[in-house]
Write a structure and sequence with these properties.
Elements (H helix, E strand, L loop, with lengths): L24 E2 L10 E4 L12 H13 L8 H15 L4 H14 L7 H25 L12 H9 L5 E8 H10 L3 H4 L3 E4 L8 H12 L6 E5 L2 H9 L3 E5 L12 H9 L4 E3 L5 H8 L4
Parallel strand pairs: 2-3, 2-5, 3-4, 5-6, 6-7
Antiparallel strand pairs: 1-7
Helix pairs in contact: 1-2, 1-4, 2-3, 3-4
Length: 291
């Protein structure tokens, strides 16, 4: 199922409203509180292992475009690439590579298959994050240092309520499962961890949501979702669920929301915005207040 591009659906501006004493921004009150299933995105929503991936992708794509016959200057190419990488962020990685192939052809070059570009990007990214993964593997770094702050606490709070949790990521499934294991997140999700595959038309976050609802014979209002990307927030809202936008500061872990993420998530209908999970107790109380 094709993942649609970002389209702003919420345009009205309003003064920010926060739960008292917290950094939980209430964009609109959730319509339901009787949640039965919880969906999480992975990178940026829980995991910070891949923080800095955009710089790796942009650099790789600029290198490719510099080899085309009708290329612009490097600075201009960097601006062009940043624009479409940003626009497509949240979708499966292959969609950015499809755009790269198109950009190569526009400049008179012969493009590779998008999956070839994706493999080149992943090779560079794995080189960038190798030390992080190894530090987790040997115990030199605690998982908490590579997670959005207080991720374990929110997961424990949800598990204590008996709610099944699911991971749905645009990152390749093999890496999602491996890195979830490194971060000690597997006990919370078990086999309910899903990610991208080479046949990108056979996987999407929307498909995961539809499967959850269909197999459990529940309505969309029973779904609670967390994500820092527009795709999962849009999918959760389209299904009738409650969406918590995680506007995480991946590089600084500052406790302040990333302004670009915040605006983008509100634009596709996020009900609540949080910078991380430090106020998880108040968040869960608010979400489940009618229990």
């Amino acid at each position: 199922m094709h993942e649609r591009d970002y389209e702003r659906r919420v345009t009205a501006r309003r003064e920010a409203c926060f739960l008292h004493g917290t950094r939980i921004e209430v964009v609109r009150e959730p319509a339901a509180h009787d949640y039965r299933h919880v969906l999480f995105d992975f990178d940026g929503t829980l995991s910070l292992i891949r923080a800095g991936w955009t710089e790796v992708m942009v650099s790789m794509m600029v290198d490719v475009l510099l080899e085309t016959p009708r290329r612009e200057e490097e600075a201009e190419l960097e601006s062009i690439v940043k624009d479409y990488v940003t626009r497509l962020t949240g979708k499966q990685t292959v969609y950015q590579m499809i755009q790269l192939a198109e950009e190569v052809r526009k400049r008179g070059g012969t493009s590779l298959d998008p999956l070839e570009y994706k493999r080149t990007y992943l090779d560079r990214l794995m080189e960038r994050i190798r030390d992080r993964r190894e530090a987790l593997r040997v115990g030199r770094v605690a998982p908490e240092e590579m997670l959005v702050p207080c991720a374990f606490e929110i997961l424990e709070g949800l598990r204590s309520r008996g709610l099944p949790m699911y991971l749905a990521s645009g990152t390749d499934e093999c890496y999602v499962k491996e890195e979830a294991e490194l971060l000690r997140l597997t006990p919370y999700f078990g086999e309910r961890a899903y990610g991208a595959v080479d046949d990108y038309t056979s996987y999407s976050k929307q498909m995961v949501i539809e499967r959850i609802l269909r197999q459990n014979e529940v309505e969309g209002a029973s779904l609670l979702g967390f994500g820092d990307g527009y795709v999962e927030i849009d999918n959760i809202k389209s299904a009738g669920g409650t969406a918590v936008g995680v506007a995480s500061d991946e590089a600084g872990r500052s406790g302040r929301p990333d302004p670009w993420k915040r605006d983008r998530l509100i634009g596709v209908g996020a009900d609540l915005i949080i910078p991380d999970y430090r106020d998880q107790a108040a968040l869960l109380e608010h979400l489940f207040e009618s229990e």
